[in-house]
Specification:
Keywords: Hydrolase. This is Alpha/beta hydrolase. GO terms for molecular function: hydrolase activity. InterPro entries: AB_hydrolase_1, AB_hydrolase_fold. Pfam families: Abhydrolase_1 (PF00561). There is one protein chain. This protein has 264 residues and is α/β, with parallel strands linked by helices. It has one domain: Alpha/Beta hydrolase fold, catalytic domain (Rossmann fold, 3-Layer(aba) Sandwich). The chain is built from eleven helices and eight strands. It has an eight-stranded mixed sheet, sandwiched between helices. A hairpin with a 6-residue loop joins strand 1 and strand 2. The chain starts with a strand and ends with a helix.
Length: 264
């Protein structure tokens, strides 16, 4: 095991302070490797990545940065609902603030679930600086399975005590976080959203990871993503895996990412 240095950062952003954390291999050779920036899912935050960022830094020998988007985790609260353009907006929003804070000339972007869609936007917006794109369980459009999964989760969170699961990580922002997910994805005006035009602007190598049992999206999502990008795509459908491969099979996911990054 290689030693890691973990540091917390406050990142200035137009919507308030963002919380970020980085894990840096102590060995000097990491400086030659492009850092990885993680983008969390719809109910996520840095803490909910758990030990994955540290394990990813150790496995790849790269600095790994994760941050809480505005309104999530330890970042400042947001008063307004998310706009329907929130996925595409992240590249020039919180993501750019984090990249500027750490003064990254180049980076690898890795997003889970809606964070995967945001990562696609980041790779497209910063095509001259993004060395590689990794998506995990990302949605490329609004599918019936996506809507059904969100409605099922919405019903669960209406049960007594369930919102406390979010308060543990988001504090008094928990209700906002839940509605930012459900109200946006279930909005009638959002039903025609897709990543198609953004995917066409991705030119870097990309690894598309998806579980065949993902409750929020069928394999049509990764297949569409791999087909539409202009960069070299590697599609990996993981059998028997649901929406969170990095938690359900962390060793397998880490080895997959490590081997792919080493080969590009």
């Amino acid at each position: 095991m290689q030693a890691l240095i973990a540091e917390e950062h406050g990142v200035s952003h137009e919507g308030g302070r963002l919380y970020a954390k980085c894990w840096t291999p102590a060995a000097a050779h990491h400086a030659k490797r492009t850092p990885i920036v993680l983008l969390h899912d719809s109910l996520g935050c840095v803490a909910l990545w758990r030990d994955f960022p540290a394990a990813l830094a150790e496995a790849t020998g790269r600095m790994v940065v994760a941050y809480d988007r505005p309104g999530f985790g330890q970042s400042d609260a947001q008063a307004s609902p998310l706009p329907l353009s929130f996925i595409g907006d992240e590249a020039r929003g919180g993501f750019q603030s984090v990249v500027d804070h750490f003064e990254f000339d180049r980076f690898v972007v890795f997003g889970h679930s809606v964070g995967g869609g945001m990562a696609v936007g980041c790779a497209a917006a910063f095509s001259d600086r993004c060395d590689a794109l990794i998506t995990e369980s990302a949605q490329a459009f609004v599918e019936d399975r996506t809507v059904q999964g969100i409605r099922a989760a919405q019903d669960v969170f209406q049960q007594p005590g369930q919102i406390d699961r979010l308060r543990k990580y988001h504090g008094d922002k928990a209700e906002w976080v839940l509605h930012a997910w459900t109200d946006t994805w279930l909005a009638d005006d959002f039903a025609t959203w897709s990543l198609d035009a953004t995917l066409a602007r991705v030119t870097c190598p990309n690894l598309v990871i998806h579980g065949d049992l993902d409750e929020y999206g069928s394999v049509r999502h990764p297949e569409r993503m791999a087909h539409l990008t202009r960069g070299a795509s590697t599609l990996k459908i993981l059998e028997g895996i649901g929406h969170v491969p990095h938690r359900e099979q962390p060793a397998r996911t880490l080895e997959l990412v490590k081997a792919w990054l080493a080969a590009i």
